[in-house]
Design goal:
elongated; 378 residues; four-stranded mixed sheet; Glutaredoxin; 3 domains; Immunoglobulin-like
Length: 378
Amino acid sequence: MKRIFIAALGLLVFACAKKENYSIKGTAIGIPDGTEIYLQELGKNNKRNSLDTAKVMDESFVFTKPSAEGKGLLLLSTALDRQQLILVKDQAPLTVTLYKDSIPSSIVTGSAENELFNTYTKKSRQLNKKKAELRLALNKARQETDGIMVTEYSSQIQELDKQYINSKKEIIDGNSNSMVAIMALSDLINAKALKIEETENYYDGLASDIRKTTLGNSIKGYIAQSKSQRAASNLASVGNKAPAFSAQTPDGKELALSETLGKYTIVDFWASWCKPCRLENPNVVRVYNKYHDKGLNIISVSLDRPGHKERWIRAIEKDQMDWYHVSNLQHWQDPIPKSYGVRAIPATFLLDEEGTIIAKNLRGQALENKIAELLGDS
């Protein structure tokens, strides 16, 4: 499943508010006079909207201009390189100390939100740095086959992961009316650290205006989508009837699942761009060729992207997949994988002749063993 959130440091949140002037006064340490400083705002889909440009004079710069509506994140950068400093947009005047050789670590003061954001990012950097050091040590211990230290470093990494999760939970619990809280929630979602029920509980505990931000709406959509996928996955469980579907074949004809059922049928979700799928295809081809005459059918549902019909067809031909194929060419927006609760590919569902699911996600030798059990090996 395509990830719908990026790390919180790269997302903008909007909330309804009256228009306010923003004021940012900066000290530019080590940055030559005349250097341009750029101010941008992160919008929907991480689009960067230019707001203003200032020039360094006597190691100082100033931005004062009517802001766009809403809260959000601002980016400060210089003409010297691509490093950026992230600020939480606030009604309070902000003061920035910008360091030439360490733009991202520069200092922002002037508002409680930015102070909280500073604390949040500092803690995250510390934990990430420590984890990176431990991973290097762990890899070295593995190379040296030092089992004792492998266990020790692995334990320390697990403890750091707990600290990472707990630090973000503390931010959310103690700052329900803060943008930083919803950024922390986004980070936890990205880290796959929360069950959907936990995510929903944290989301519901945030202030209304925070939930209504762009990031808040994204998380709301994520919760709804996750629930829908779980419901679909439960529906497409072993023992249940396979969800009906139809879609176009490579030659443009509509084909329904019901038209493809044999004694046993594999519903195979894949895509031409999916390397694990392509690696598994030779095994599926071998099983199909061996058992098709005994009643095995396959219908492959491709998650290829819009406009990629030729790539889909070429992959079918190259991999010698001589069975039924359909696709809506809608990538992860295709309703068929959604109805089966598919969140990753390859994914397979084995059906009996009545269309009842009798097994899921069989691959490699496990797939052949199951088909041999059902149709007999010869």
